[in-house]
Amino acid sequence: MTDDTATPWHILGAGAMGTLFAHRLEAAGVPVVLVAREAGTMLVHTLRSANGDSEREFAVEGPASPGTVRRLLVTVKAPSVTAAVAALGPRLAADAVVVVLANGRGYREALAPCLGGRPLYRGVTSEGAWRESASVTVHAGEGRTSIGNPAGEPLPPRWFTAGPGRLPRVGWDAAIEQALWEKLAVNCVINGITALHGCRNGALLTDPAARRDCEALLLETVAALRALGRPQLAAALPGTVAAVLRATAANRSSMLADRLAGRETEIDYINGFLVARCAAQGGRLPHHTALLERVRALQPTLASGAAGGSHPA
Question: Which residue is catalytic, options 139, 183, 252, 288?
């Protein structure tokens, strides 16, 4: 039987969120291995927070490194999730646990071939972090993280209790599907507009043009949620969005950060997912569709098939 307390967690993606959780897991006594594009020896990395600097050393593997992966936390951006997990697929143990902690939806069907029947666990987090350099991550704000099985699993499994569940502000969520929808809906209203206008979140409350676009998206998202059978989430969304904008007024959204860095954004896995879900029921979301087109036009040329596809899960 696997000793869950000694089983290392492989973290796929050595960006801000990946290194943040690497530090937090090791501080809780959970062994960590980083998985990057290429294998390395060790990464000496600093986490900078309000409590000061903490330096740790992590082993770094590549997708094709030898050894079996039994616990995998995926922290790469949405457009890279499927390819990154597929590259690591041959190393996954038969009882491997895979947790995706990335924005947006649309992974389940695409990941099914490399998961081979293993459940796909999902997580949502409000932790704030950004990468100052390859060796320094800034923990900009504490938040909460929820992990669960969208297919349903009421009680936390042993791997969770012995791993992420040992961290402060990390909990098991038997209703993770609801949390995923709430995070998606908020991101649908905020992220794309900040990327389009090149503004911080607070501008959606104060800048007339950004606020007008945000309000149009909000109304359309509320209607979409009602049409998709989520009336409670629809009713709460205006208050939720307002609270998030006030709490994160000085923040840059991850989509704005991607746009400013010249990276592909997650627009297709956020607004694109909602558009596809509504289209499958014969509905149209003109404001979301227009935003999709405008943000796509701002980002680098996408690889074949990366944009415009349906995201059924």
Answer: 183
Radius of gyration in angstroms for the set of CA atoms belonging to the chain, rounded to a whole number:
19
Fold of 9-174: Rossmann fold (3.40.50)
pTM value is 0.91
Residue 311 vs residue 215, higher pLDDT? 215
Interhelix angle 176-197/231-247, nearest 10 degrees: 50
Residue with tokens 């959780």: 21
Q: pLDDT grade, residue 16 (50/70/90)?
A: very high
Let me know if the fold of 9-174 is the same as that of 178-298: no
What are the residues whose beta carbons fall under 8 Å from the beta carbon of 90, sequence distance 6 or more? none
Q: Across all residues in the chain, what is the average pLDDT?
A: 92
Please say whether the beta carbons of 211 and 204 come within 8 A: yes
The ranges assigned to domains in the chain are: 9-174, 178-298
- Cα separation, 118 vs 115, whole angstroms: 5
Q: Closest Cα partner for 291 from 193, 181, 183?
A: 193
The letter for the amino acid at 213 is D
Q: Is the pLDDT of residue 307 over 60?
A: no
**CA–CA dist 282, 247 (Å, integer):** 36
pLDDT in tens, 181-209: 999 999 999 999 999 999 999 999 999 99
Is 77 a known active-site residue? Answer: no
Q: Which homologous superfamily does the CATH classification assign to the domain defined by 178-298?
A: N-(1-d-carboxylethyl)-l-norvaline Dehydrogenase; domain 2 (1.10.1040.10)
